[in-house]
Amino acid sequence: MPTSSEYDPDSLPDLLPLYYRRLFPFSQYYRWLYYGGVQKNYFQNREFSFTLKDDIYVRYQSFSSQAELEKEIQKMNPYKIDIGAVYSHKPNQHNTVKSGTFHALEKELVFDIDMTDYDDVRTCCSAADICSKCWTLMTIAIRILDRALRDDFGFQHLLWVYSGRRGVHCWVCDEAARKLSVAARSAVAEYLTLVKGGEETVKKVVLTDPIHPFIRKSLDVVEKYFTDYAHEQAILGHNKSVDKVLALVPEEVRQVLQKDFQSEKTPEKRWDLIKAKASMKKGDDKKQQYFQEEIMLQYCYPRLDVNVSKGVNHLLKSPFSVHPKTGRISVPIDLKELDKFDPFAVPTISLICEELDQPRTGEKESEDKKEKENENNATERRKIRDYKRTSLAKYVKYFDQFLDGIACTWKGELLKKSDLQKQF
Amino acid sequence: MEFSGRKRKIHTSPHAEHYAHALQFYEQPPTENICLSEFETFAVDRVKLLKTVENLGLSYVKMSDDYNKKLNNEAKVLNFPYRPDSSQCGPTDNDRRRKDHISHFILRLAYCQTEDLRRWFIQQEVDLFRYRFNDLGREQKLEFLHRNNLQYNAISDKEKVALKDQLISSSYGLSGVTIEHQDFYKVPFQDALDLVRARKVYLQAGYVYIPHQDIITIVLNDFRTKLSKALALTARSLPAVHSDERLQPLLNHLSHAYVGQDYSFQKNVGKISLEQIDSLSGKSYPLCMRQLHQAVRENHHLRHGGRMQYGLFLKGIGLSLEQALQFWKSEFIRGKVDADKFDKAYAYSIRHMFGKEGKRTDYTPYSCMKVILSNPPSQGDHHGCPFRHSDPELLKQKLQFYKVSPSGIEQILELVKGMHYQLACQKYFELTHNIEESNFSLNHPNQYFIESQRVLSGGKDIKREMETPQRLQENSAGSTAAREAANASQDLAGMTDLDSIFQDP
Ligand code: SF4
Ligand SMILES: [Zn+2]
């Protein structure tokens, strides 16, 4: 077995059975997707899809209970698990229901932010690669979206998850979010989208007066990170990247700046020049007066894959699924620790499997004895104890806290329901 | 289905009381008897009107003066209510309102049948309603809201003061003074999606604060929701109507008339060889497809949006499934995808486009409208319409590169500025094909291709087979088909009891 720091994709088939047998947090996972049983068949009608060896993709899996889910996953040992919508019928029977009646009803509102979408504005890496320099972009994205989803849209139960490679996902789990129509999802996604246009567009952010409070608050976030980020990426350092920035400023300002930059080479001072020009512009003719803000947003504002958020039936990689290429677990991110979150410190499947092999401490032995006295839950207990011995523990613990949070809401729902029943 | 032989209700005619107002929410279906020829005229005229709504929406800014004037004019010509005026309720007004009412319900029958039809119908009806509501005076608006029980919660003055700054910076054209004199309504954001989408409203904790000037949004939302529910209900009761052999052909023709040609059928399969594609892309592709073609050739890859837009276009111009597979595969394997991965990850969706995989067989090539309006390109994408989605500066460079004359470029950019993207594209067509004025109105990339081929072959009819039997795209599109249907059923004169169609049996 390779050492903890290295993950070898070829070892995945050997590690997965162990992971699913002893480490995957099935009970939390089920607790989440069962949503307190408030709605009938909510878990049973949920679609899961598995990617197996050799990219074999099986859709429309569904399970009647936690036990069945566990059994199937342990049997199939999927390389990757995706979660889909809650359907009108059991997804694994979708072929047997009358055509036209099988459709997606609900799903968490989800967001997918992928570093590859920032390729035109990061200089450190490209495509699937990431490093700590560009990870700042993800931090900014989470800060901005999390604030807006809570304050503007009033959602409370947001689960942020590291995708395992080069991005993050957000699962908005509030009941109201799960019930949103396709039109509403796309409206939310568009509200949150500022960077627009494809390869044929140079200027991707255009602001007009008045600046909407949402944009103001997003700018506040970007401002906190921008100077450091611009410095690390040297966006005002090299000629090529300077040209890219200058392409975003108004024609007449561009000419002046081009001249000024010939004598001023330090990136920080160059940014100061831009700022000075921008505030002059605000006093003057006001046309394109927000170019400085536009630059900051074009470089740092979150880039959403709107199509992922729009569809109710769109699948998204599940939390605690493994990334087959990196071996990293898709772990929930605790926003209280966001600025310290390091994607490279996220445990790989090989690391946690190895930790499992480490000899136990005395303290844990005594726990073992206690367990024997209560044999009923022995297996379940053993699994809990297992993950607690690995670096996965703190992520599962955070997931537990998150679930406690939503559980409060469904307790309320259940009470309401039982009250109603009493009336009849 | 019942005809006038059997009367279930005694009707007083004409319905003088019934139509006291120009603008309707269409809550009550018509209950009177109507003769089949009137049934047809009403339906056909409404398709015409909605078609106009659609066309105007593509060529003008909605609610601009030109848009309003032209729409009002069309309504007038077609005998629909055209200038709301509740003080005057002469017989003509009443007739127009009756026609508005009945024709709306007839089209519900024709357009409830598929998802696409419903979407089109709802969109046009909503636009029509928006125009009419906007045209009402302040008093009339309030009266309309009142009459239809549309009540919304206004926030208190205290709350208004507390939120003043946010309200000003979220709504266009509001100042501290205007705020004082306006009511703000607080509704769940789900009820004002258009305002949320465009960030035209202040949003807090899941609620939007809508100034009275924008109340139309919530009203429209109600209108849309109700209509969409009603269509679903109508669809369920449709089998009864469909069993009527007199109405069925008419309804089907009405619904076919809405988008013009869809280029989904394959006629010239195999007449084009893969070797020809590069040269065709230079000569006969519209810019959107040329751009995609170039992108595949350069990057040996296209993202999903591009594969769909270009793949379906290729199918439309006559590539066979085998050719398409070969084309995509040969490019993709030159990029990052190996043959095995291609077969697993991409071949399926290409077969899907040709209806060879999965249940759906109706993948039709995208129309300009679809390309322009839906799924705008984002990072890494090459799809979309260059006239709509390229920076004007880049578009200009591209046109220069394609050797369009400076004056031509100017004309094109002028059209783009006015948001007449399809007209801009047509201008490009005329300039590059050296014709004074083209005799078609462009609404589909595949149409562009066919017209181009026709011009290049010297107007000879070599490509005739590519044409469809019915060409429906011009303004009169809707009516042609519907008139045909009307003729077909001319001998079936008789009376239709609307009540029996719209009420559940
Ligand atoms: S107008 Fe239509 S055909 Fe022309 S480029 Fe745009 S989408 Fe393509
Ligand atoms: Zn990097």
Your description of this structure?
Chain A has 424 residues and is an alpha+beta fold. Chain A is built from 16 helices and 8 strands. In chain A, the strands form 2 sheets. In chain A, strands 1, 2, 3, 4 and 8 form a 5-stranded antiparallel sheet that branches. The longest helix of chain A has 31 residues, at 393-423. Chain A is globular and about 75 Å long. Chain A starts with 11 loop residues before the first helix and ends with a helix. Chain B folds into 3 domains: 16-148 and 220-254, Transcription Elongation Factor S-II, Chain A, CATH 1.20.930; 157-214, no CATH class; 266-475. Helix content of chain B is 56%, strand content 4%. A 3-stranded antiparallel sheet of chain B has the order 2-4-3. A two-stranded antiparallel ribbon of chain B has the order 1-5. In chain B, strand 3 and strand 4 (207-211) form a beta hairpin. In chain B, helix 1 (36-59) runs antiparallel to helix 2 and helix 4 (115-135) packs antiparallel against helix 10 (216-236). Classes of the chains: A alpha+beta (424), B mainly alpha (505). The A-B interface holds A 55, 99, 116-120, 151-155, 176, 180-181, 183-184, 186-188, 190-191, 195-203, 210-216, 303, 305-307 and B 166, 168-170, 172, 189-190, 193-194, 196-199, 202-207, 291, 295, 304, 341, 344-345, 359, 375-384, 386, 389-391, 393-395. The structure holds iron/sulfur cluster (SF4) and zinc ion. Iron/sulfur cluster binds next to helix 14, helix 19, helix 20, helix 23 and helix 24 of chain B. Iron/sulfur cluster binds at residues 286-288, 368, 371-372, 385-387, 421-422, 425, 445, 448 of chain B.
